[in-house]
Amino acid sequence: MTAIAVTIAGSDSSGGAGIQADLKTFAALGVYGASVITALTAQNTQGVAAIYNVPAGFIAAQMDAVFADLSVDAVKIGMLFRSATIEAVAQGLARHRARNIVLDPVMVASSGDTLLTREAIEALRRLLIPRALVVTPNLPEAAALTGASLARNEEEMEVQAREILALGARNVLIKGGHGQGDESVDLLIGQGKVVRLAAKRIATKNTHGTGCTLSAGVAAGLAKGRDLIAATQDAKAYVTAAIAHADQLKVGHGPGPLHHFHAQWREP
Description:
With 268 residues, this protein is of the alpha/beta class. 37% of the residues lie in helices and 20% in strands.
């Protein structure tokens, strides 16, 4: 059987994040990717110029088309922007009994532009977090979801992750890329032990789409039948390598994308 994952997210016109990053990740990791586009952004490596919200009814139509025909093994959810979109996605997931849901609570672009309205945060907490197999917030997103200050260490990261678990998620992967120190440490926290995933912090400005890529990598692993811990470990290794090779690409004038196809492309 062909492993299939669907990404439900916004489009990044410069190709580094969102739908484009997700589909690149699925392809690089050997998974067939489908998509449901929730928003269009006029975006490049220097920022987001404009956002167009896809109507909720058309989001529902995309979901119905994909799930009615494809045997979807995993779902990655990214940029949603507003409450009406969240409601349409939640209803579609319920309607099609979607499984292996990876929720990346995208709130702010790496450029600092807002990608989730303030009033939509409560809808995210109420309608989507309880449906997720795993929620993958970075440190600012975890702080926003819990109403806390930015976590300063692994102990505070774990506290905030457990508060998100209390909202109904089965697992939380809290990402430490915004932290300090020689290592970038993520924590996978569920009902059992805490799984620590650490990688050497790589000095590069080209990290656009890192969060999208990691959550898509987790979804790809789940689609291939990997358990959550193995899928997360594989995704962490893939993202680390994609960051390490990011400077081989010369894309744009701002923070560029990861090298999603570092294992497939030959260096010139």
